[in-house]
């Protein structure tokens, strides 16, 4: 395996990995992520300004927080001379979906440990992973839990030379650098920044650059996610103080759970704004934001920026059709 550290004076290698990274970025043709004001008459009596940072528009597949979290890890992998990315995720994982596609664009092999058993035919997410050349290994829940322990790029036991490990959700050290860039794109002053949380890595990244006058509110997508507070504190050196919090009230009974109330909220929001939401992260987070506004949690005159973290491919799981409303 070629490693940058082994050849510090080798400028041609560093030029070539930079070129490989630039070529991958070019191939992906990323788009801008505008900040969009939500024009909703419902908000008017509360005198709250709600804006959505449209990271879902960054890319049709590597969308939302996925590119933010992968960007510098991919660059690091290329800098180390690695040729294979390995990660883990569930059968509908947005992270694996983005990673498999990114691998195909950056000329890197991809492998994944998938939680659960191989079910045939493959669901649409797994079919995409397969079609984009990702090698899949299905693991039991206990094996999967064990894999969660490996956090650093080289922490996976028996990692082969040239292989690069990305922990669950792409939540490695390099994720925060990419996520923090999101804040460089926001010039508007704001009071609160709202984001959905799975591993908490996106929230941790936001803390590294948020303005001191603003509060970051994470909305846990998982039930019993008390671990998030300590995980975010571990991931971010800026996690001291009380200008961030995680709200645990809007998981709707668990990660893949939805109900009619959520789906009706999403239906109204999507009809009004023409912005598609994913039901597991941004849909739940925005439901929470609206509910907190109704409860008077935010002061009149405040400006909230919520982040659309993408994940729209997950709508293919059929989850939207689960409830009485027939879905959004
Ligand atoms: C669409 C979407 N939004 C938000 C999140 C939560 O991100 P994090 O795991 O960094 O907290 C995820 C999970 O990775 C996701 O797939």
Feature tags:
Rossmann fold; 15% strand; 2 domains; binds pyridoxal-5'-phosphate; 10 helices; single chain; alpha/beta; 4-stranded parallel β-sheet; disordered N terminus
Describe this structure in words.
It is built from ten helices and ten strands. By secondary structure, it is an alpha/beta fold. It folds into two domains: 28-62 and 174-321, Rossmann fold (3-Layer(aba) Sandwich), CATH 3.40.50; 64-170, 3-Layer(aba) Sandwich (Rossmann fold), CATH 3.40.50.1100. Strands 1-2-10-7-8-9 form a six-stranded mixed beta sheet. Strands 5-4-3-6 form a four-stranded parallel beta sheet. Helix 2 crosses helix 6. It starts with 10 loop residues before the first helix and ends in a 21-residue tail after the last strand. Pyridoxal-5'-phosphate (PLP) binds at residues 64-65, 94-95, 169, 171, 196-202, 278, 281, 309-311.
Would you summarize the structure shown here?
Helices cover 35% and strands 15% of the residues.
Could you say which structural class the secondary elements and strand pairing correspond to? alpha/beta
Low-confidence regions? 1-8
The order of strands across the largest sheet is 1-2-10-7-8-9
> What can be said about the biggest beta sheet?
6 strands, mixed
Radius of gyration: 20 Å
What is the domain tally? 2
Shape: globular
Kindly state the number of beta strands.
Answer: 10
Number of helices: 10
Distinct ligands, ions and cofactors found in the model: pyridoxal-5'-phosphate
Distance between the termini: 48 Å
């Amino acid at each position: 395996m070629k490693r940058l550290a082994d050849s510090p004076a080798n400028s041609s290698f560093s030029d070539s990995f930079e070129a490989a990274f630039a070529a991958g970025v070019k191939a992906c043709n990323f788009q801008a992520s505008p900040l969009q004001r939500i024009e909703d008459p419902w908000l008017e009596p509360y005198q709250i300004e709600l804006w959505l940072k449209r990271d879902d528009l960054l890319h049709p597949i590597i969308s939302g927080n996925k590119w933010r979290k992968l960007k510098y890890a991919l660059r690091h992998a290329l800098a180390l001379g690695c040729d294979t990315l390995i990660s883990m995720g569930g059968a509908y994982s947005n992270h694996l979906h983005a990673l498999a596609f990114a691998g195909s664009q950056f000329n890197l092999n991809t492998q994944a440990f998938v939680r659960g058993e191989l079910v045939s035919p493959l669901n649409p997410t797994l079919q995409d992973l397969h079609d984009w050349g990702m090698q899949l290994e299905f693991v039991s829940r206990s094996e999967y839990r064990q894999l969660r322990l490996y956090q650093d790029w080289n922490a996976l036991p028996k990692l082969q030379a040239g292989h690069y490990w990305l922990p669950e959700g792409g939540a490695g050290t390099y994720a925060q650098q990419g996520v923090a860039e999101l804040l460089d794109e926001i010039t508007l002053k704001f009071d609160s920044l709202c984001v959905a949380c799975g591993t908490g890595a996106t929230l941790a990244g936001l803390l590294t650059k948020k303005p001191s006058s603003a509060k970051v509110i994470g909305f846990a997508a998982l039930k019993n996610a008390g671990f998030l507070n300590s995980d975010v504190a571990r991931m971010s050196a800026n996690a001291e103080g009380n200008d961030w919090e995680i709200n645990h009230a809007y998981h709707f009974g668990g990660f893949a759970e939805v109900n009619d109330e959520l789906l009706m909220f999403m239906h109204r929001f999507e009809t009004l704004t023409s912005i598609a939401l994913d039901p597991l992260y941004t849909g739940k987070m925005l439901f929470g934001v609206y509910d907190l506004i109704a409860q008077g949690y935010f002061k009149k005159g405040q400006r909230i920026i919520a982040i659309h973290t993408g994940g729209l491919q997950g709508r293919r799981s059929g989850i939207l059709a689960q409830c009485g409303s027939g879905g959004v």
